[in-house]
Amino acid sequence: MITKMTKYTFLLLRSDTEAFLQEIQALGVLDITRSRKPVDADSARLYREAEDIRREIETVERCDFGKDAQHTALSAQLAATAAALEEKKQWGDVDPAQLKALEKAGCPFHYYTVPVKKFNPAWIEQYPAAIVAQDEKNVRFVLVGDAPQGSREFQVPETSLAPESVEALSGQVQALQKALQDRESEMAYRKQDIPALQQAYAEKAQALQRYLAGSRSLLAAEDYIAVLTGFAPTEEDARLKAELDQKAIYYISEPATAADNPPIRLKNNWFARNFETLTGMYGMPVYDEFDPTPVLAPFFLLFWAFCMGDAGYGILLIALGLLLRKGNFDILGLHKHWRLVTTLGVGTFVIGLLLGTFFGINRKEVSWIPEGLRKLMLVGKIEAGGGSYDIAMVAAIAIGIFHICLALVIKAVGLTKRAGFKEAISTWGWVILIVGGLAVAGLALTNVLDAVATKIAVIVVGVLSVLGIFIFNKPGRNPLLNVGAGLWDTYQMATGILGDVLSYIRLYALGLAGGMLGAAFNDLGGMVLGNNPTWQWLPFILIVVIGHALNFAMSCLGAFVHPLRLTFVEYFKNSGYEGKGLEYNPLTKEMK
Hints:
Number of domains: 5
Shape: extended
Distance between the termini: 24 Å
Number of strands: 13
Mean pLDDT: 82
Strand content: 5-15%
Low-confidence stretches: none
Structural class: alpha+beta
Radius of gyration: 38 Å
Number of helices: 20
């Protein structure tokens, strides 16, 4: 369910805004409407400073020299100086002072490096030049005086040399190497400063949070008065008002309405609370919507268990959840979701027992299973309409039909609550046609209704649904337009509902595929084991363990993605859920 919110409007001097926000931050329950990104130069500066500290923490924690700006700059400078030193050594060590004196006297030196194939020996005779060094690849020569830039035969780019001597460059390289080593030692030593850096980051982030809250205030009275708006759970009213009254702050409190677009805090029982993360992945409801979590929770658990389909894998999930609970064991950041993992494991174990699979073993074929348990398994065929269908597949489709019917009812009720019955007439018409039609069909097939009662019920359902869908779908509008809109809705519903129902077959298909793959690994291991095993036990264990580990991982991935799709697409679409609400995010000093 959605927690009731109270809207608070505060009136205070602009100069008191910062102190007020710090006090609100200490209370930790008031969500001040604020920007989510930097809004001006000051907030951008605070954001950059906080980010710099956060990156420094990451760099120090990982000793990642590639992300440290100072280490990167020193490394680049060292590489450039070392390259300059090596180039200088190729030309020989000449006193820079003498070169400058010759340049002033009108005899500048120009240095050239040319590939051997492109070097022309005639240059040495035509120009005041001399070869300094030569190897298999390049010829290095020096030209004294003005370079013959206009000559077509002498189109050679000049080589740039460092003005320092070899000795000076060597000293620079040694100094940079020492600076780089000192920086690496400093970074390794600074790991003990991580708690202080984390505290600095928290303070900077809190300052940014307060600033963003203040930046959204409305200004009045020539910028001397600030008006702030915030929301807090109604259950916190007594404590919050007592604190505000002690601070002599002028405020107005009133129940929040949907027009205020208050932030959303979900409040569910221990079971549904585990699935609130999935609701948040799609988006929070708006204030006058229904919280989808109480419906999402049991169906997602059922879908997950169907897709896993193996009681043995349920035991593995339960064990994984209990390991995650200890805190010193975490995988994929699931520590805080250990209850969800354990709950999914319990559901998988129960449904796996019904589907008759335990680590790929078909329990229906095991002789020691009691006959009473065999009858509870969804294993076998159903004869209907001249065909034979797996019970598990029929169950998956039945679950899908019920899920979509429930979504349609929730959509009709929610639309009636938010916009009134007139706006929901068409939706109720479809509910009567689909849900009512299925109910009448079920009662007739089970002989609860006789032929006469069935005929009357069909007529009533047909008349009410036609009136709602085609005649009164938009009261006050031209009837011809209503009929046209009804025909268009009929086309969309006929194609959409059928596709949505067929989507639920994936529950059966994934469970069947996982069971068959597990059985294949068992059979492969059994073939290796043989009748009189000795050393064959080792490859048997490896095949079975590795095979089921891979199958377990793939089953978990499929059991997460596909139920999520059935919920986010099939259910949310038919229930009219949009998920455009804002999550409750109060000002607090507890930085997560």
